[in-house]
Specification:
- By secondary structure, this protein is of the alpha+beta class.
- The chain has two domains: about 130 residues, no CATH class; about 35 residues, no CATH class.
- It is about 30% helix and about 35% strand.
- The strands form two sheets. A five-stranded mixed β-sheet has the order 2-3-4-5-6, with helices on one face. It has a two-stranded antiparallel ribbon with strand order 1-7.
- The relative contact order is 0.17.
- This is DUF177 domain-containing protein.
- It holds the Pfam family YceD.
């Protein structure tokens, strides 16, 4: 399956010296990514990055910028957002493993992308970085009123009320008032 935002780079064109590039998604690519990530819209997706290679490992460092519109998880209303997300990725060759063998990555290796062949796809890497930078539970300004009207307490509001109640029950509450 071809990614919606594919920008491939041949590995043999990279060396020790950093190669800088800029990539931007066009309107059809942004629309396809918005559908994939269940967004109302992606109005802009741009990344500036530098890449260098040491042996078979490629480092890509940069910043992605995006203008997206998500749907509020409470009301369904549009929630526009500007995203500016720095990233540091390492592309490595796909490890040779058995069919049943699982690949373990350490905490420091969570931004590793495996490749197979003579090319890497920095466009797909930027798209995946965008998906990780999205607000998981976007809320519109009307969300709190809608929750109140439905008789649902927000978790942070409920936690705050519980802390206040605990404070009032404290044996030291009388001393704090004086």
């Amino acid at each position: 399956m071809m990614p919606e935002f594919s920008r491939t780079v041949r590995i043999d064109t990279l060396g020790d010296a950093a190669r800088t590039m800029e990539i931007a998604a066009d309107a059809p690519e942004r629309a396809a990514l918005a559908e994939r990530f269940d967004l109302a819209a992606i109005d802009r997706l741009f990344a500036r990055l530098s890449m260098s290679r040491k042996g078979d490992r490629i480092a890509a460092n940069g910043t992605l910028q995006a203008a997206v519109t998500q749907n509020c998880v409470v009301t369904g209303n549009p929630v526009p957002a500007e995203i500016e997300e720095p990233f540091a990725l390492e592309f490595r060759p796909q490890p040779a493993t058995g069919a049943e063998e699982e690949i373990e990555l350490g905490e420091a290796e969570m931004d590793v992308i495996f490749y197979d062949g003579a090319m890497i796809d920095v466009g797909e890497a930027v798209a995946e970085t965008l998906s990780l930078a999205l607000e998981p539970y976007p809320r519109s300004p009307e969300a709190e009123a809608a929750l109140d009207a439905a008789g649902i307490k927000d978790e942070t509001q409920a936690a705050r009320e519980e802390a206040e109640a605990k404070e009032k029950r404290s044996p030291f509450a009388v001393l704090r008032k004086s």
